[in-house]
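WARN retry 2 of 3 for item q-0093 after timeout on previous attempt; input resubmitted unchanged.
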Amino acid sequence: MAQGATAYEIMVVLHPDIVGEQVEARMAQLRGTLAEHGNDVTEVIDWGRRRLAYPIKQAFEGHYLIAHFDGGPDSRRDDLEQSLLIDEQVLRHMIIKRDR
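OK item q-0093 returned
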C-alpha cells in the first residue's frame, strides 16, 4: 500500500440480465474505472447472481461484484460514485473503508 493510502471495498450490484462474458467485461471495466479515478486495485471478486432482499428497479436478483482497492489522498471517489450512478446496469453500489 502506498504512503497515505486508505484501504476500501466497493460492492456493485449489476442488473441480472448481465451473464457470461459480459460479467468478465464488467469486472475489467470496474478495475479500469477504479484505476482511472486514482486508485490501486488489489482484487476484484465475482460473487455471482443472488436474490435481492427487496426489488430494485423491478429486478429481484442482481449480479454482485466486489473490489478491494487502495485510495490515496488524490483519488477521486466522488467522480467514481458519479460514474456508477450514471451506469444504467448498476442497481446499487456501496464503498466502505476497510480495516487492514
